[in-house]
Amino acid sequence: MPSTGTPFDWADVEVAVPRSSNGPPGIGMAGFRHRVPGRVDIAMVAHPSVTLLIDLADGEGIVHDGPGRRERGSVAVGLLPGDLRTTGHGTGECLQIRLDPAAAAAVLGASSELTGTLATLADVWGRDAARAEDRLRAAPSWDERFAIAAHILGRRLDARPPVDPEVARTWRRTLAGRGRVRVDRLADEVGWSRKRLWSRFRSQLGITPKHAARLVRFDHAARLLAAGHTAADTAARSGYADQSHLHREVKKFTGSTPTALAAAPWLAIDDIAWPTSSPTRPSANATPR
Description:
Elements: E1 13-16, E2 27-34, E3 39-44, E4 50-55, E5 63-66, E6 69-72, E7 75-77, E8 84-89, E9 93-99, H1 101-108, E10 119-120, H2 121-125, H3 127-138, H4 142-159, H5 165-176, H6 183-190, H7 194-205, H8 209-226, H9 231-238, H10 243-254, H11 258-262, H12 265-268, H13 270-273
Antiparallel strand pairs: 1-2, 2-9, 3-8, 4-7, 4-9, 5-6, 5-8, 7-10
Domain HTH araC/xylS-type: 165-264
Keywords: DNA-binding, Transcription, Transcription regulation
InterPro entries: AraC_XylS_family_regulators (IPR050204), Homeodomain-like_sf (IPR009057), HTH_AraC (IPR018060)
């Protein structure tokens, strides 16, 4: 899980976030620029969102290595990516977009892409992918890039019917309950049978309610580990049966151990790129070039 060679240092990365949170619902964005020439090698950590990584670098670009697949450039990363690494050279730039599963179902247009390890942006957007990349690369500031991305994503959201309200509510309750609300209770809350909820949730979001709960619970555990909690304490706080149960889940989601996950560089940037409670946010007006 940890990077090989020289430890990755986020101090070498400029991070920009949108000034306003009034973008399309269920979508978050952050821009990254590696300002010191050199090798970037970091392990991604599974997150309860579908991730678009828009490669804005000149030259060789970013390489993504997942189980059984390697892709270069812009990609869509599904909800259950497994052991996935991102590497690059030079002073690359990248726009990262997080889509909650309901938004992703519309933006990507196919639930089958939500749980795949890795797909190129061209796989899911066709010719629109290259046009979007060209517009984003040509924009002179992160502010403009965020505006362009919000417009593109907003149009795709408006063009497709939303998921069932019951499915969207079930996902929100799973997040709020940190993956610890039973499926039977969720079904009762939306007035559906367990079988119907399971079927509709899976067909629209590409993941079962049980796997969604496991992913959300893992995400909570990962952040506790990154904050310095022991594996035993994290297991207890996150609803795992014991430390061994936590170890098995971390291994399944990342191919690594709780100790290595706690030091994962990918988690270290979240409070900067994706602030949740801070009254102030990093400026997004920096010129990206």
